[in-house]
Amino acid sequence: MFRSRSKEEKAPTDQVMADLSNQPRDPQAPKGRPTPKRSEAQTQRRAVVASTGNRKEDAKRARERRRAEMARQREGMARGEERYLPVRDRGPVRKFVRDFVDSRFHVAEMFIPMAVVILALSLVRTPQIQNVAFLLWLGVIALILVDSAGLFIRLRKQIAVRFPNEPKRSAVVYGLLRALQMRRLRLPKPQVKRGERP
Question: Would you list the DSSP string of 129-163?
């Protein structure tokens, strides 16, 4: 009598446990095991790295591995490989924006060299040269604004045509910021030549 009853109770419990194990765990729910002490966690991390018995050698190996991994990530990012890119640079829309900006010359990319020249001219105590520097500064800003407005309109139109169903949030701003950088300093590196169609 007791035996049959305990079997009947056990069967539904096993089924409920199986159902619970198939469901994804709520991030707020407890993880089902105790948190290890700090000393245990550090011991486990050290055990993962192959130990030679010499702490200096182990630290040197770990540094070399980190350096090699960082170099691989930098090279991948420079080449534009998707998995190495930061989140802001990922996706087909951002790749198109980069190629669109890199395929043309923009006045904005000359902003930093021009700013250095204008600053040097403005330091000269001659009033005529300072006036020239001021007018040059106004001219550069006006050219950058006109060029950026044209880029904004063209880029927004091209993105709307090519990617009607993709999320396009802040893609045009991303392009404008890229146009402000000097071509050789851009990351990821330009993948298209000037004059090439993206």
Answer: HHHHHHHHHHHHHHHHHHHHHHHHHHHHHHHHHH-
Q: What is the dihedral of CA 21, 26, 28, 30, to 10 degrees?
A: 0
Q: How many CA atoms lie within 13 A of 56 on its CB side?
A: 0
Mean pLDDT, rounded, for 123-127: 89
Instruction: Report the half-sphere exposure of 103 (CA within 13 A, side-chain side).
Output: 14
Per-residue model confidence as pLDDT tens digits over 25-76: 555 555 667 777 787 777 766 655 555 667 888 888 889 999 988 888 888 8
Instruction: Please enumerate, as own/partner, the contacts of 142-151 that have beta carbons within 8 Å and a separation of 24 or more.
Output: 143/107, 144/107, 144/108, 144/111, 147/106, 147/107, 147/108, 147/179, 148/106, 148/108, 148/176, 148/179, 151/101, 151/104, 151/106, 151/175, 151/176, 151/179
Query: pLDDT digits over 106-115, tens only?
Result: 999 999 999 9
Q: How crowded is residue 126: how many other Cβ atoms within 10 Å of its Cβ?
A: 9
